[in-house]
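Field reference: sequence -> structure
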Amino acid sequence: MGNVFGGSDGRALDLSNGGTEVFVEVLTLAVSALAERPWHFRFAALLTLQDQNVMGRGAVGFDLADVDWGATPQQRARAREFVLRTVDLALTRHRWEELGYEPVSAEASLRRFRAMVASYAPSAGGPPAADGGFPAAREAAVACCVRHRVLNALPLWDGCVFCNRPG
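Structure field:
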């Protein structure tokens, strides 16, 4: 069982449960360092929803079409640029030494995801339906786990993706 992060033109990032855990952890480290604006914190919340230790193994993933990229071309461009900067920071191995393991599959997954986002053209029709899975502004990940120094989904659950690790 695995998880799928979908793009356009049938492109998708299909990851094992372990690959998903690594992907989410390295992106969480990066997004936590870069988030400054409300949309950034909403994207961070989307990443917190990919925590399989809370949501269930094989039960996460999202499609780029379900992301509320913004209503104007400028908003969509800024949102996509932020996601690309987040992936680029993760590709620099930002804070990977804190993971406690070598994320061997992370670079390839990040590069594939980056290519998907870079080639994705968000719809000009405005935000997707409310049930698309992209967190609303009131659900933004603005809380920070003091122990791990990353954004988390408080008050939805008590810990960050690192607190929720088994063992």
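Note: The beta strands are 2-6, 12-16, 143-145, 150-152.
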